C-alpha cells in the first residue's frame, strides 16, 4: 500500500531526506484571475527539520493555514514544489495524495477531530485501519500511555471533555508513526489548562518519540512550546526565531505589528 | 413575516424537497387519474346507454335469478318472447311502436380464412342478433346493405377492420344449433362510442332460425311511447297485459343495467388504481416525515434563534407547517395534472382491450377537491410530528448544538406502544391462524395485519440498533473500516434509519405475504388436481359453452376412450331443515365418477352420478345437518322439481368439490328434458388404455380445430392455466411492489443525501486522515445497503407471518398446502441490497467529490 510514495520519487528533497521532513520551494498559491487575483502565498521557501517542533505564526489572513494545507497535501499550489520526506507531492493525483496523507502524515485540527461513531481507541487506530495495517501494539500502548488515555479508550467522543478529545487526536496522529504531524490551531478551542496539557504532550512526543511536528497557531504561549517559529505575513515568511519563549514570541509579534502599522 | 421566512426556507431547500415532491405527485396522480378516468368512462357509457335505450324493454323473466338471459353465461337456454307479445305491446295505449329484437351472446364469430375468432376473446362480448334498427339505433350502415336472406350478415366496422374482413368475405357463426356461414353484405358503424363488442347482424327470419331454432320468437321487445304516459306507466301496463313470466325494464333501468355491466370492469381498474395511490401515499408519508425531520434537525440553530428572539412555539410549528403546505400545494397541482396524462394512458389501454372511451376527459370539481385534499392531508399530517419536535427545541440548546436533537424520554413510551401493538397483532395473527372458521380467522387476520405493521413501524428505530448490529456484524470483517463506519452510521440515528427502512418494509411485507398466499394457492391446486382429477383432458368455452357438435367431434378423436359431459343448471335447493339455497346443479355423464376421485367423507360417488343421488360438500352438510340418504328438494323453475338423496359427502378443502352439487345427467333429464337443458359447461376426456397421451391430446386438439372458442387442456395445461390466473394477480402485486420500492428508494436517497450533507465535516476529516474516495463511496453504499436490507428483513418477516396466517385461515377452503416461495424471498432480499446500492450512487458520488478543505472549514 505504500508503494505509491516510493514510485513517485521525481527529485530529491533539496534539504536532503535525512534533515528535512518537509520542504517547500517557491510555493505560490493564488485564488481568482486577473484583477480579482488574491495571492495567499507568495514564493515561499520552507524547510521543516526532522525531529523538531515548528510553529507557524501570523495574523489572520497571513496565509499560515494555507501554507500548512499545501504542505500537508490538502490543497493544491499554483506554483512551486513541495516535498514530504523524499516524495515530491506537487503534481500527485488525489489517490496518491490520499495514500500519502494516510501513511506519512498525521493531523490535529482545531475541533471536530474525531468520528462520533467510533470510540477513542477506534479513532486512534483509524488511519491504520484504513490502510489495512495492524497497529504496532507496543508503540500504541506507549502512545496511549504518554497521552494518559488508558482508562478512556472505550469512550465515545461525546463522553470525553474537549481536552481529552484533543489528546485522542494527538494519540491518533502519533500512533501511525507518520513522517510529520500537522496541527491546525490544535489548542484553539481549549481552555489554557487543557491547552497546556495538549502542548506538553506534543513537546514530549518530539523529545521522547522523535516526532516531527508543524503547528499553525496565533497564540504566543503555544508557539513557546516549539523549537522554532516561522512568522508569516501577506503570504511571505518575514521572520524566524529559534528556541522561542512565549514572551519573546509576543515581543516579536508586537514589533512586527508595529512595523506593519508604521 | 413568518410566512416570508417559511417561503424563503422552502425555496432555499427546494433541492431537498424534490424527492418528497415526487412522492406526493405520484400519489395524487393516481388519485386524480382514477377519478378522471372513471368519470370519463362512466359518462361515455351513460350517454351511450341513455341515447339508445328504448322506453321499455320486455323479455322473458328468467327462471332463476342468477341465470338471466343476456348475461353471457352458457348455463341457461336463451329465453324468448313469442311474436304475439309484440302485437300485444304495440296495441297498448301510449305505445307508439313496438318491435321484436333478437340478440344472443353465446355465439362465436369465426373468420373461416384464419380459423380464428374474429370477435374479442375476453372483455367485451360478441353479440349476434337481428338487424332491426329502431328510432334510437346507435348504428348506421356505412357500406353495403342490410343483411337479407339466410346467406347474409352485416358486421360492425371496428370488428371488420380488426379481423380484416370486407364486403363479400365469408364469416362463420358457431352456436349451440350449429355452424352457419354467411357473406358480409354490409358494414355498420357506431354513430357514437363503440363499447368494444363485436356485432353481427342477420335478418329477422335468419336470426330466428339460426340463433333460436324457432320461428316467430324474439329475445326481447323494444317499445317506444308516444309521449303521453311515463315509462313507469308503460311498464306497469305492459306487465298487466302480458301477465307473469315477463320482465319489463324502463329506459332508466336498462341504462342502469348497462352501466352496471361495464361498471364491474371499470370498478376493477378503479380499485387497482386506488391501491397504487394508497401504497404510494403510505410509503410517501414516511418520506415526507423523514424529509421534514431532517430539515428541522438541520435548522435546530435557526429555530433556536427564532425562539430566543421571542418566536412562540406556535410560530415555530406554523413555520414548518406552512412549508409543508407549500410543498403539498405544489405537489398536488403537479400530481393532478399528471393524473390527466395517466387517465389518457388508461383510456388508451382500454382501447387495446376493445373498449372505446371518449378521449375528451371529464374533469369535474371532484378531481381538484380530491387531489388537493389527499395531497395536503398526507403532507401536513406527515409534517406535524417533526413540526412539534421543532417547537420543543429549547432556545439555548439550539444555539449551542449543531447536531441532531438527542432522543431520550420518548424511547420508553415508544417501546411500550410498539411492543403492545406488535405483540397484540402477533396474538391476533396466531388466533386467526388457529381459528376453526375461515370467517373468524379472516377478521382476526384483518386486524392483526395493521397492528403488526404499525407495531413494526413504531419499533423500527429500536430494532434498527439491534438488527443492524447483527446484520452488519460481518461488514467490518468483510469491508474493513468502511464497513465498520457504514454499520455505525446506519445505527447512529435509529429513528431516521427506522423510518427510511419502514417505507421499504411495507412494500416488501405486502409482496411477501401475497407471494406466500399465491404460491400456496398454486401448490394446493396442483396437488388437488393430481389427487382428484383422473380425466386426462378438459375442454371448455367460457362464452358459449360446449355444443353437441363439439362433443361429437371430440369423441371421434383417435385415442379417446370416452368423453364426460358436464352441464350446470341453476336451481333452488330445499334442505330438510326448511332452508333454501340458490345454487347450480352439476349434471355429469355417468363416466364422471370414474374420471374424478371424490375426496369422500362418507358415501359413494358412484351412487351420486349413476344411482340417482347427489353429492354435497362437508360444510353444506354440516350447516344443514345433512346425513347420507337425506333428501334434497331441487327446483329448476317452471314447475320442474325433483327430490334427490344425499349419496356422498365430500370432505372440505377441495377447490373442485367445495360448493358443488354433483349428480347424473340422466337423473336431471328425468325432470328437465334434453331440449330444455343448457349447453355443456365443459367436457372431460379420457385416453383409451394403452393410447399415447400426448398423441391423443394432439388428436383432440385437431378434432376441435373448427371451434376456436374451445380451450383444450391436459392436466399439465390445467395447472398452467390456473397458475396463469394466479400470475395475473401476482403481476398486480408486483406492480404495487414496484411503485412502493420506487418511493422507498427515493426515501433512501433522501436520507443518504441529507446524511452526507450533515456529515460534511466528518467526511472532510476522514479524507484528511487518508480515507480514499473509493473507501468513502463504499462506506456510503454499505450504509445504504444495510438500511435497505434491514427494511427488507423486517418486511419479509412481517409478510411471511401474514402469508402463513392467511394460508392457515384458508386451510379448509382449498388452501391446504403451505408453500413458502423461498426463491422469491431470497430474490427480494438480494434485490433490496441492489436497491440500496442504486440509491447510494448519487449521494456517494457527491460525498467523494466533496472538497476536503471546504469540509474541514464548514461550521
TrEMBL record, chain B:
GO terms for molecular function: transmembrane transporter activity. Keywords: Cell membrane, Membrane, Transmembrane, Transmembrane helix. It comes from the Bacteria. It is a multi-pass membrane protein. Residues 276-393, 736-852 form the ABC3 transporter permease C-terminal domain. It is found in: Cell membrane. One of its GO terms (cellular component) is plasma membrane. Residues 18-223, 497-701 form the MacB-like periplasmic core domain. The chain crosses the membrane at residues 271-297, 318-349, 369-388, 415-435, 447-468, 501-522, 728-757, 782-802, 822-845. Belongs to the ABC-4 integral membrane protein family. This is ABC transporter permease. It comes from Streptomyces tateyamensis.
Amino acid at each position: 500500500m505504500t508503494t505509491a510514495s516510493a514510485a513517485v520519487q521525481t527529485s530529491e528533497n533539496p534539504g536532503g531526506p535525512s534533515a528535512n521532513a518537509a520542504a517547500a520551494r517557491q510555493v505560490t498559491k493564488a485564488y481568482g484571475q486577473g484583477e480579482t487575483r488574491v495571492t495567499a502565498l507568495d514564493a515561499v521557501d520552507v524547510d521543516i527539520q526532522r525531529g523538531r517542533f515548528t510553529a507557524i505564526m501570523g495574523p489572520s489572513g497571513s496565509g499560515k493555514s494555507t501554507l500548512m494545507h499545501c504542505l500537508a497535501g490538502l490543497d493544491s499550489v499554483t506554483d512551486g514544489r513541495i516535498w514530504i520526506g523524499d516524495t515530491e507531492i506537487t503534481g500527485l493525483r488525489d489517490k496518491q495524495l490520499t495514500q500519502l496523507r494516510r501513511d506519512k502524515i498525521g493531523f490535529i485540527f482545531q475541533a471536530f477531530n474525531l468520528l462520533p461513531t467510533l470510540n477513542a481507541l477506534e479513532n486512534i487506530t483509524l488511519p491504520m485501519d484504513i490502510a489495512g495495517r495492524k497497529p504496532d501494539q507496543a508503540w500504541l500502548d506507549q502512545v496511549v500511555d504518554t497521552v494518559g488515555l488508558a482508562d478512556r479508550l472505550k469512550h465515545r467522543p461525546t463522553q470525553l471533555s474537549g481536552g481529552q478529545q484533543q489528546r485522542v487526536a494527538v494519540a491518533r496522529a502519533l500512533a501511525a508513526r507518520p513522517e510529520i504531524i500537522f496541527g491546525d490551531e490544535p489548542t484553539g478551542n481549549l481552555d489554557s489548562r487543557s491547552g497546556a496539557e495538549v502542548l506538553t504532550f506534543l513537546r514530549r512526543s518530539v523529545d521522547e518519540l522523535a516526532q516531527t511536528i508543524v503547528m499553525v497557531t496565533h497564540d504566543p504561549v503555544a508557539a513557546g512550546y516549539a523549537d522554532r517559529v516561522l512568522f508569516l505575513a501577506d503570504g511571505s515568511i518575514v521572520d524566524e526565531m529559534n528556541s522561542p519563549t512565549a514572551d519573546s514570541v509576543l515581543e516579536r509579534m508586537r514589533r512586527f505589528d508595529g512595523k506593519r502599522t508604521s | 413575516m413568518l410566512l416570508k421566512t417559511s417561503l424563503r426556507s422552502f425555496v432555499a431547500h427546494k433541492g431537498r424537497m424534490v424527492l418528497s415532491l415526487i412522492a406526493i405527485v405520484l400519489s395524487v396522480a393516481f388519485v386524480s387519474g382514477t377519478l378522471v378516468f372513471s368519470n370519463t368512462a362512466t359518462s361515455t357509457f351513460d350517454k351511450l346507454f341513455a341515447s339508445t335505450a328504448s322506453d321499455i324493454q320486455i323479455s322473458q323473466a328468467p327462471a332463476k335469478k342468477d341465470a338471466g338471459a343476456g348475461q353471457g353465461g352458457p348455463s341457461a337456454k336463451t329465453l324468448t318472447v313469442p311474436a304475439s307479445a309484440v302485437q300485444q305491446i304495440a296495441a297498448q295505449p301510449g305505445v307508439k311502436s313496438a318491435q321484436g329484437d333478437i340478440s344472443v351472446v353465446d355465439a362465436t364469430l369465426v373468420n373461416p380464412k384464419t380459423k380464428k375468432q374474429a370477435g374479442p376473446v375476453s372483455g367485451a362480448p360478441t353479440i349476434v342478433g337481428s338487424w332491426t334498427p329502431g328510432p334510437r339505433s346507435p348504428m348506421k350502415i356505412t357500406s353495403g346493405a342490410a343483411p337479407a336472406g339466410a346467406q347474409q350478415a352485416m358486421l360492425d366496422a371496428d370488428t371488420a377492420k380488426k379481423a380484416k374482413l370486407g364486403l363479400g368475405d365469408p364469416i362463420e357463426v358457431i352456436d349451440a344449433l350449429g355452424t352457419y356461414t354467411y357473406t358480409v353484405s354490409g358494414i355498420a358503424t357506431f354513430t357514437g362510442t363503440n363499447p368494444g363488442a363485436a356485432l353481427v347482424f342477420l335478418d329477422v327470419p335468419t336470426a330466428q332460425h339460426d340463433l333460436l331454432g324457432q320461428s316467430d320468437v324474439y329475445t326481447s321487445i323494444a317499445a317506444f311511447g308516444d309521449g303521453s304516459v311515463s315509462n313507469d306507466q308503460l311498464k306497469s301496463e305492459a306487465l298487466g297485459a302480458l301477465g307473469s313470466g315477463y320482465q319489463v325494464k324502463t329506459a332508466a333501468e336498462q341504462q342502469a343495467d348497462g352501466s352496471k355491466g361495464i361498471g364491474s370492469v371499470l370498478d376493477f381498474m378503479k380499485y387497482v388504481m386506488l391501491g397504487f395511490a394508497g401504497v404510494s401515499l403510505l410509503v410517501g408519508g414516511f418520506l415526507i416525515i423523514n424529509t421534514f425531520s431532517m430539515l428541522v434537525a438541520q435548522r435546530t440553530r435557526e429555530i433556536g434563534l427564532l425562539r430566543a428572539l421571542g418566536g412562540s412555539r406556535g410560530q415555530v410549528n406554523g413555520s414548518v407547517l406552512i412549508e409543508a403546505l407549500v410543498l403539498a400545494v405544489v405537489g398536488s397541482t403537479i400530481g393532478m395534472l399528471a393524473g390527466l396524462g395517466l387517465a389518457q394512458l388508461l383510456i388508451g389501454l382500454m382501447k387495446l382491450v376493445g373498449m372505446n372511451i371518449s378521449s375528451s376527459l371529464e374533469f369535474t370539481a371532484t378531481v381538484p377537491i380530491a387531489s388537493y385534499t389527499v395531497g395536503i392531508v398526507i403532507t401536513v399530517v406527515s409534517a406535524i410530528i417533526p413540526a412539534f419536535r421543532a417547537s420543543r427545541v429549547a432556545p439555548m440548546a439550539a444555539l449551542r448544538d449543531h447536531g441532531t436533537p438527542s432522543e431520550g424520554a420518548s424511547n420508553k413510551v415508544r417501546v411500550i406502544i410498539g411492543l403492545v401493538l406488535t405483540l397484540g397483532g402477533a396474538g391476533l395473527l396466531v388466533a386467526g391462524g388457529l381459528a376453526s372458521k375461515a370467517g373468524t380467522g379472516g377478521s382476526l387476520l384483518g386486524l392483526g395485519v395493521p397492528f403488526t405493521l404499525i407495531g413494526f413501524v413504531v419499533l423500527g428505530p429500536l430494532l434498527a440498533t439491534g438488527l443492524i448490529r447483527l446484520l452488519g456484524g460481518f461488514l467490518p470483517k468483510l469491508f474493513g473500516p468502511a464497513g465498520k463506519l457504514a454499520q455505525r452510521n446506519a445505527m447512529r440515528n435509529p429513528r431516521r434509519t427506522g423510518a427510511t427502512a419502514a417505507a421499504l418494509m411495507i412494500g416488501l411485507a405486502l409482496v411477501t405475504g401475497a407471494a406466500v398466499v399465491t404460491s400456496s394457492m398454486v401448490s394446493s391446486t396442483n396437488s388437488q388436481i393430481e389427487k382428484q382429477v383422473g380425466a386426462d383432458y378438459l375442454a371448455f368455452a367460457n362464452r358459449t359453452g360446449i355444443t353437441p357438435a363439439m362433443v361429437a367431434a371430440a369423441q371421434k378423436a383417435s385415442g379417446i376412450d370416452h368423453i364426460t359431459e358436464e352441464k350446470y343448471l341453476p336451481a333452488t335447493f330445499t334442505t330438510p331443515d326448511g332452508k333454501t339455497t340458490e345454487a347450480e346443479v352439476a349434471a355429469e355423464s355417468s363416466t364422471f365418477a370414474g374420471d374424478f376421485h371424490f375426496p369422500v367423507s362418507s358415501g359413494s360417488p358412484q351412487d351420486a352420478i349413476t344411482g340417482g343421488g347427489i353429492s354435497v360438500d362437508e360444510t353444506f352438510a354440516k350447516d344443514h345437518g345433512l346425513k347420507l340418504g337425506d333428501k334434497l328438494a331441487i327446483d329448476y323453475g317452471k314447475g320442474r322439481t325433483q327430490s334427490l338423496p344425499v349419496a356422498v359427502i365430500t370432505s372440505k378443502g377441495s377447490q373442485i368439490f367445495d360448493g358443488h352439487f354433483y349428480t347424473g345427467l340422466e337423473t336431471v333429464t328425468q325432470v328437465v328434458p334434453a331440449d330444455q337443458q343448457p349447453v355443456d359447461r365443459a367436457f372431460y376426456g379420457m385416453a383409451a388404455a394403452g393410447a399415447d397421451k400426448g398423441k391423443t391430446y394432439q388428436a383432440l386438439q385437431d378434432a376441435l380445430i373448427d371451434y376456436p372458442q374451445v380451450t383444450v387442456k391436459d392436466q399439465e395445461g390445467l395447472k398452467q392455466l390456473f397458475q396463469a390466473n394466479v400470475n395475473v394477480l401476482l403481476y398486480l402485486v408486483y406492480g404495487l411492489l414496484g411503485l412502493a420500492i420506487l418511493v422507498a428508494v427515493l426515501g433512501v436517497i433522501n436520507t443518504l443525501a441529507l446524511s452526507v450533507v450533515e456529515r460534511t465535516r466528518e467526511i472532510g476529516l476522514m479524507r484528511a486522515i487518508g480515507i480514499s474516495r473509493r473507501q468513502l463511496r463504499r462506506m456510503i453504499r454499505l450504509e445504504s445497503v444495510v438500511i435497505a436490507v434491514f427494511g427488507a428483513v423486517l418486511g419479509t418477516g412481517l409478510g411471511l407471518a401474514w402469508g402463513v396466517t392467511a394460508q392457515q385461515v384458508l386451510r379448509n377452503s382449498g388452501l391446504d398446502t403451505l408453500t413458502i416461495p423461498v426463491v422469491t424471498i431470497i430474490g427480494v432480499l438480494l434485490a433490496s441490497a441492489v436497491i440500496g446500492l442504486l440509491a447510494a450512487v448519487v449521494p456517494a458520488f457527491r460525498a467523494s467529490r466533496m472538497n476536503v478543505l471546504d469540509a474541514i472549514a464548514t461550521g
